[in-house]
Write a structure and sequence with these properties.
Elements: E1 14-17, E2 24-26, H1 35-47, E3 52-56, H2 83-98, E4 103-108, H3 112-122, E5 126-127, H4 138-152, E6 160-165, H5 167-174, E7 183-190, E8 193-200
Helix pairs in contact: 2-3
Length: 208
């Protein structure tokens, strides 16, 4: 077994996440496969639909800060995407289209950087409160994480479910921190349980 700190950039086995068990990483079927084979396996999985795609918002302007108490509709008082981030978001959507990956619902945190990432990538988005991080209130964050886990544990219909959110939220859900613009692919198993099928860093997305 691997510890969380040893989580690979691409996970060759599965990270099983459930309500009672936080994270279990089993290095198995694809562990010895070449990186390219693992990449292709992930894209084949996505082309078949029924997966959950966690996306951390694209690159942001780190000189900006979220103003405490500011309404989420006030983008001027938040940390927002920079020009690189906007290009990254478009690139994510183009990579999905080029690979023929079906996209169903696209849900996002209400922060402007997440909504803009979703719109630029997929041209549509629904705001969903549980994806909004609550760093200062562990009780609220625990409830939101439970709601996300319940949704991510059920196979979506009509393509893959896309969830655009924050590193804090993703780490609470899976135990795996990811960078801006990175993807984490979940395979739902039902009853609030899912496997983490793999991780796709932005720089390793296929060219459209």
């Amino acid at each position: 077994m691997l510890e969380i700190g040893q989580a690979m950039r691409r996970i060759g086995g599965a990270v099983r996440v459930g309500v009672m068990a936080p994270v279990l990483i089993a290095a198995s079927v694809l562990a010895a496969a070449p990186a390219g084979a693992v990449d292709e396996a992930l894209w084949t999985l996505l082309k078949g639909g029924g997966q959950v795609v966690l996306i951390r918002h694209a690159a942001t302007d780190m000189s900006q800060r979220d103003a405490a108490g500011a309404p989420l509709s006030d983008c001027a008082r938040q940390r927002n995407l920079n020009d690189d981030g906007r290009e990254e978001a478009r690139f994510i959507g183009a990579a999905f289209r080029a690979r023929g990956v079906p996209v169903g619902r696209v849900l996002s945190s209400g922060y402007c950087r997440c909504l803009e990432t979703a719109r630029l990538a997929f041209e549509r988005v629904e705001e969903w409160l549980p994806l909004q991080q609550s760093i200062t209130n562990p009780e609220i964050q625990a409830r939101r994480t439970a709601e996300i886990r319940a949704l991510a544990g059920e196979p979506p219909t009509g393509g893959n479910l896309v969830l655009v959110t924050h590193q804090f939220t993703i780490r609470n859900l899976t135990g795996i921190p990811i960078g801006e613009g990175e993807l984490l692919i979940l395979t739902p198993r039902g009853a609030g349980v899912f496997d983490v099928a793999g991780r796709v860093p932005l720089e390793e997305l296929p060219d459209p």
